[in-house]
Design goal:
The protein is an alpha/beta fold and about 525 residues long. The chain contains 15 helices and 27 strands. Among the domains are: about 10-190 and about 215-235, 3-Layer(aba) Sandwich (Rossmann fold); about 415-515, GMP Synthetase, Chain A, domain 3 (2-Layer Sandwich), CATH 3.30.300.30. It has a seven-stranded mixed β-sheet, sandwiched between helices. Strands 13-14-15-16-17 form a five-stranded mixed β-sheet, with helices on both faces. A hairpin with a 5-residue loop joins strand 21 and strand 22. Helix 1 packs across helix 3.
Length: about 525
């Protein structure tokens, strides 16, 4: 059934809409407690009144340090009601990483949990407020003041800010996989477009969706929170990832959508009782950020679940591509689908000239919902666009004759070996198709003869022990000689960034040390 959603200005408008239309419908689940839309809207208004009483006004930035829990969602929507700009902080960040985000985004207030797991956050908050002249810091949860963390003032009546579509909504920092993270300013228009288009592509009214991704990631804000909220659904917030728990919650909460990064979906499918559990409520499994191994695709397909992969990035907010409803295993594992017809997309050569179907080029995008700027970095913002106004994703791909895009790699990760351009993703896909391989990550390291050579870090499947020489021989069957990695390194696990992507900077340092 086709799903057509209303178009409002901000995600907070959708909260008010469903609080009026379906006040008793489930909005949020967390740790056994469910909030209805009416209850969530009441909490949001209370916190918005407290933030207004603390002096927060339209255009101010407020940083929130939290796991995915109701307070995260409440502060996000409360900030939007005031016209403030919300900045998510990941509790897995070191102090150095927190300081980078705070120094770049310059928030007026910090809201934080006092501790998470075994980590006492108050000393870091005290240091941040002193070092960067933060006006005030408050406890995110209910409780007595703790050191630098005060309690929010009593809520007072406030006048909701009449935001415009291109007003800034949030600052999301890039993953840092290829350099220092930059703060991308995302607009309300971009968030609403991304949420509505993806929700309509999925086609499920009032979906029930688990969310365990970090609150500072665009996939948490748009792909999970946004798509659920605009369709009047329920967000099941999980503060840590446990594949057995998610399988259990699919049964108990009748979850409908499983949307996550491939590493998470792979762990769920490999749960010991995955094949025996009741997954009849689960209608869609969707992923982005990296390919999902073919055997995992088959495991979900065997349960009769629709599969969907998307491709986007922080700066585009919305997904650039979607696979079709009836995409086969080859399309799902080897491509990221076809372009969103609501975007203008081209593939271009190194001179930013559009290339033909079947040729290799950079994915470039024009769209009204793109990020507004890199906060405080006008030079970086200008450098992100071509002279004729196309955003440069940095991703290199090939548009196939069937209209699906196959990604090859990132320009920043390109390996220049013996005068040839080598893209790691092409090699990784080749390795991951081989028996006994769960995941692969390819990076370049300097070489006296060829300038650079590829090094492949390979994580075997459980109880498998692939032979590096056999992997090399198999790669030679499908890859030109200059693309075959110089070295294959078997590892128990690949280092990951907080968002679940492979930390290739760490692998490069490891390769340099080994060399």
């Amino acid at each position: 059934m086709a799903l057509e959603l209303p178009r409002f200005t901000t995600l907070a408008d959708y909260l008010d809409y469903y609080a009026a239309e379906t006040p008793d419908a489930d909005a949020v689940w967390h740790a056994g407690t469910t909030l209805s839309y009416a209850e969530l809207a009441h909490r949001v208004d209370l916190v918005a009144g407290s933030l207004a009483a603390s002096g927060l006004t339209a255009g101010d930035r407020v940083a929130v340090l939290s796991t995915p829990r109701p307070e995260f969602l409440v502060t996000l929507l409360a900030a939007f009601k005031l016209g403030a700009v919300w900045v998510g902080l990941n509790p897995r960040y070191t102090y150095r990483e927190l300081a980078h985000v705070i120094s770049e985004s310059e928030p007026r207030l910090i809201l934080s949990l006092p501790n998470i797991d075994d980590r006492d956050l108050e000393p870091d908050i005290a240091r941040l407020t002193g070092e960067f002249a933060i006006e005030r810091a408050f406890r995110l949860d209910a409780g007595e003041p703790v050191g630098a963390l005060g309690t929010l003032p009593e809520s007072r009546p406030f006048a909701p800010h009449a935001s415009k579509p291109l007003d800034p909504a949030t600052i999301v920092f890039t993953s840092g996989s290829s350099g220092a993270p930059k703060g991308a300013v995302l607009s309300h228009r971009g968030l609403v477009y991304a949420s509505c288009v993806e929700s309509e592509a999925i086609g499920i009214a009032a979906p029930r969706v688990p969310c365990n991704l970090p609150i500072n990631h665009v996939a948490c804000l748009a792909d999970l929170t946004g798509t659920t909220l605009v369709a009047g659904g329920m967000l099941a917030l999980l503060e840590r990832f446990d594949p057995a728990e998610i399988v259990d919650l699919i049964e108990r909460l009748r979850l409908t959508n499983l949307m996550n990064v491939p590493t998470v979906l792979q762990a769920i499918a490999m749960s010991p009782d995955f094949g025996e559990r009741d997954l009849s409520s689960l209608r869609v499994v969707s992923w982005g950020g990296a390919p999902l191994p073919a055997e995992i695709i088959r495991a979900y397909r065997a349960r009769g679940i629709r599969l969907l992969t998307v491709y986007g990035m922080t700066e585009t907010i919305a997904s650039i591509t979607f696979t079709g409803e009836h995409a086969d295993d080859e399309v799902l594992s080897q491509t990221v689908g076809a372009f969103d017809p609501g975007m203008r997309v081209r593939l271009a050569d190194e001179q930013d000239r559009e290339i033909a179907t079947g040729e290799q080029g950079e994915v470039q995008v024009q769209h009204d919902g793109l990020f507004l700027e890199y906060f405080g970095r006008p030079e970086a913002t200008a450098a992100a666009y071509t002279s004729d106004g196309w955003f440069k994703t940095g991703d290199v791909g090939v548009l196939r004759a069937d209209g699906n895009l196959r990604l090859v790699g990132r320009r920043s990760e390109m390996i220049k070996s013996g005068g040839y351009n080598v893209y790691p993703r092409e090699i990784e896909l080749c390795i991951e198709r081989l028996d006994g391989v769960a995941l692969a990550a390819v990076i370049g390291r300097p070489d006296a003869t060829f300038g650079e050579v590829a090094v492949a870090y390979v994580m075997p499947e459980p109880d498998a022990a692939p032979d590096p020489e056999d992997l090399r021989a198999r790669c030679r069957e499908d890859l030109a000689n200059y693309k075959v990695p110089k070295e294959f390194v078997l590892v128990d696990a690949l280092p990951l960034l907080p968002v679940g992507k492979v930390d290739k900077q760490q692998l490069k340092r490891r390769a340099m040390g080994a060399a």
